[in-house]
Amino acid sequence: MYQKKITYHQENNEELSIRELLKKWLIPKKWQHFFRIQQDVLINGQYHSFNTIVQDNDVITLNFNFPPRTEQHYLPGNDPVDVVYEDDDIIVVNKVAGKKTHPNKTDESDSLMNDVETYLKNGHPYMVHRIDMETSGLVLISKTPYLVPIFNRQLSSKTLHREYLALVNLDASINESGTIKQPIGQDPTDVRKRMVTSDGLSATTEYQVVEKNADFALLRLNLLTGRTHQLRVHLSYNHWPIVNDPLYNPHAKTGNLLLFAHKLTFSQPFSGKTKIIQANLSKNMYNLICADLTATKKLT
């Protein structure tokens, strides 16, 4: 059983019932039902009707005494993990380029989730989101399956937000900022690839130029949707392919894909507080970006 104790802090003089507070915390309706019929929500150690108004500094105990939606464990991995943030419920790690976020088969042990399985020792990781194998950067992982649906709702409502940095080849001119809205679907000629297609799923990417010269630009990218290969497809479609992209960049590949998930913003479960986590570029990626931006001409 997973148990969570929270000291409730009233915001803006709000008066919320237990039912309204559970809804605010994005707890699924089915779980709210279990909490009520099993009397597994306690206020200062006592069960109360769900219409009870929660008072400032009340201690709320949630006993998740029912099966989670998913329960998947991984084989132990062998590589160390770069932990950027960790608390009792979550861990944020900096994934290296070239490593899968999760295994595709139960007998695989070479993904990030396998490595975190080893790191947690007495616990297990539960995947909240993934990034492409070729992409490096931040990945949020839950230590309990009971938080995954809450984070899924944050992903849907955009309160869990991911920001990327990418170095691109400028095969066409680029504005200082903009929004790319192009639907993305399967490439019929290559099962590995996606493409902009009129019958694809809606996809929206925001970009801002951080620095540029005649040949390259460093972009800050915001995902407003989460389609497979979205950033890579959108940028390539606009003739700004990400440097070293093996699938979408026609230029010669000289190293790892220069796409980095550098910032995560989300709402801490059961608190409403915004958490922002950032990671520094690896030394190798930083040096490559600096070299490419300064190799030919002065920055504009």
From TrEMBL:
CDD domains: PseudoU_synth_RluA_like. Residues 89-236 form the Pseudouridine synthase RsuA/RluA-like domain. It catalyses: a uridine in RNA = a pseudouridine in RNA. GO terms for molecular function: catalytic activity, acting on RNA; pseudouridine synthase activity; RNA binding. Keywords: Isomerase. The keyword Isomerase applies. GO terms for biological process: enzyme-directed rRNA pseudouridine synthesis. PROSITE patterns: PSI_RLU (PS01129). The keyword tRNA processing does not apply. InterPro entries: PsdUridine_synth_cat_dom_sf, PsdUridine_synth_RluA-like_CS, PsdUridine_synth_RsuA/RluA, RluA_PseudoU_synthase. Coiled coil: none annotated. SUPFAM superfamilies: Pseudouridine synthase (SSF55120). Belongs to the pseudouridine synthase RluA family. This is RNA pseudouridylate synthase.
